Amino acid sequence: MPMSPSTIDLIRAASRQLVREFGFMGGAFAGTDLPPSAVHALIEIDASDGISARDLGGRLRLEKSSVSRMLRKLVVSGDVIEAPGEEDARTKRLTLSAAGRKRVAQIHAFARAQVAGALEHLPSERHRTVLDGLRLYAEALAGRMDASSAAPQTEIVSGYRPGLVARVTEMHALYYARQAGFGRRFETVVAGGLAAFCDRLDTPVNGIWAALCNERIVGSVAIDGEDLGPGLAHLRWFIVDDEMRGTGVGRRLLEAALAFSDAQHVTETQLWTFSGLHAARHLYEENGFVLAEERLGSQWGKDMLEQRFVRRRP
Asked: For the segment 266-285, what is each residue's pLDDT rounded down to a tens digit?
């Protein structure tokens, strides 16, 4: 059904207002002295863990000369490091320096505060409307709606449901067997801990969420408000099935858990993970977690560098 001209004009007007409010018209952007293209370049380089200038230009939709000029400035400023590619020395691999990582952390902190400040003017039940609307519009602009609309839809549901303990344990066991070589010890600890936690779900500070696709559990996350002590929340059993990685399901699960945690007025939320899970770490840091502790552990049957991340309540 064709959209009315008035609706199209209203969407255009709202888009122009977003451009102005975010600072794309000039001046300071995202709390920096950088232009928008440079800010987005730093974020993409940080997220990619090494990317070529050509691929960066493709992601940002910038021509080669524009990318080259921008990267020269970021290299001179000390934010970006260029190194020969592993397969082709003529291809430069781009990574962030320590200063660049610090700048990106500041950009994310500024952006989170900007979004949080805007959402404070809306009732909480409208927050999801904003997220879904922006996501759908971005996908439509990218011309991906045909593919995404045909893909199975997922929903995030809270609370226990039949098969939850077994399915979440299975996802953990399969993923960490492949990633870290964990076996029976790890699986039994996950199953036992999760089963005991589900017996405590009637306590208001505890919660668990599952991602469902065609009624099948494809992801999970939990907030344990009891095991770390008063004022502390423990984010646990965060996992996404292999087939759903990269679809945004993990981000939606984490958002649901952190919204619940913030509503409990806890001082901070903590989680434990393992070194080397780069995609998960990036998602944690995007949502305000910072690395607080590292230690070697062998409780899972082999030595691993365990990491504790902490997120202060906004």
From this structure: 999 999 998 888 888 889 99
